[in-house]
């Protein structure tokens, strides 16, 4: 993170993170407040390690992380995390069409497991199929009603097999071993376009390493920590902050469900939309 972005954070969060000196000790400076929190979010190191590095107590590190993440959520989240509207939405749709060749796409959606310390009560609610405790973090990322083949194709999100097929969530054909060439081609195009969300998760966890390991915070604070990391990620992307491409990959997000289309009473509209996309791509090959 550049000094310019760091100074911006200090200025925007000063109201939330400035404290007065007391009779017993001087208040921790604002810049140290922000620096300690960023260091923890970027590395996930233990509180004792940070306390030693900055010459403060472990309890102070814990309070700083809590206060900083809550300040990020309250002051900056709504500014930097928004679903695009109007002209901005059209720019995203054009971006997916231009870069990935996928029409009517407003974003790619996916989820990722974030390891946590489960609470003593209801701890089984956090036990995932991998055999450890986590919360599922779901995100929509951008690229960076038109008619297709006679079907009204709505603006949609692109999902993986874990998601149910909906008019506004498009996923590939389930691979049962007998897909047509056209269906396989649609799956390839959709998979390419969905790379945006997998890359975004990788960059997010690469920058803010606390998300790539167990979050050793109270379960009630976990959503706030994740929100702070996402806000900081978008700030870094907007300000063109350098990203260490040589960092080890955090890995793609894990699917949270099973492959296959829903059975039973099925809404046929998303099936028609997917078939229209299949025919649309067939004309471009």
Automatic annotation (TrEMBL):
Organism encoding this protein: Labeo rohita
Family from the record: Belongs to the HARBI1 family.
Keyword Nuclease attached: yes
Renumbered residue ranges of the record's region Disordered: 246-269
Subcellular location: Nucleus
Protein name: Nuclease HARBI1
Required cofactor(s): a divalent metal cation
Superkingdom of the source species: Eukaryota
Keywords, comma-separated and alphabetical: Hydrolase, Membrane, Metal-binding, Nuclease, Nucleus, Transmembrane, Transmembrane helix
């Amino acid at each position: 993170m550049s000094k310019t972005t760091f100074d911006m954070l200090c200025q925007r969060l000063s109201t939330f993170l400035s404290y007065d000196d007391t009779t017993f000790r001087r208040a921790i400076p604002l810049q140290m407040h922000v620096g300690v929190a960023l260091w923890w979010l970027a590395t996930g190191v233990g509180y004792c390690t940070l306390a030693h590095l900055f010459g403060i107590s472990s309890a102070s590190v814990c309070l700083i992380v809590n206060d900083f993440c809550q300040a990020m959520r309250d002051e900056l989240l709504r500014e930097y995390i928004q679903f695009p509207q109007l002209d901005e939405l059209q720019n995203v749709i054009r971006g997916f069409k231009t870069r990935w060749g996928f029409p009517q796409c407003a974003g790619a959606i996916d989820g990722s497991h974030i390891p946590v310390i489960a609470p003593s009560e209801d701890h089984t609610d956090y036990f995932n199929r991998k055999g450890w405790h986590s919360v599922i973090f779901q995100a929509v990322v951008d690229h960076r009603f038109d008619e297709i083949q006679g079907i009204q194709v709505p603006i949609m999100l692109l999902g993986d097999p874990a998601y149910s097929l909906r008019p506004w969530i498009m996923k590939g054909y389930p691979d049962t071993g007998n897909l047509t060439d056209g269906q396989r081609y649609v799956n390839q195009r959709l998979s390419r376009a969905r790379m945006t969300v997998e890359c975004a998760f990788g960059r997010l966890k690469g920058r803010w390493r606390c998300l790539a390991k167990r979050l050793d915070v109270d379960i009630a604070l976990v959503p706030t920590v994740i929100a702070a990391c996402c806000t900081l990620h978008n700030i870094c992307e907007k300000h063109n902050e350098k990203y260490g491409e040589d960092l080890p990959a955090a890995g793609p997000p894990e699917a949270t469900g099973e492959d296959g289309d829903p059975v039973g009473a099925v809404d046929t509209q998303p099936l028609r939309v997917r078939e229209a996309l299949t025919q649309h791509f067939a004309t471009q090959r």
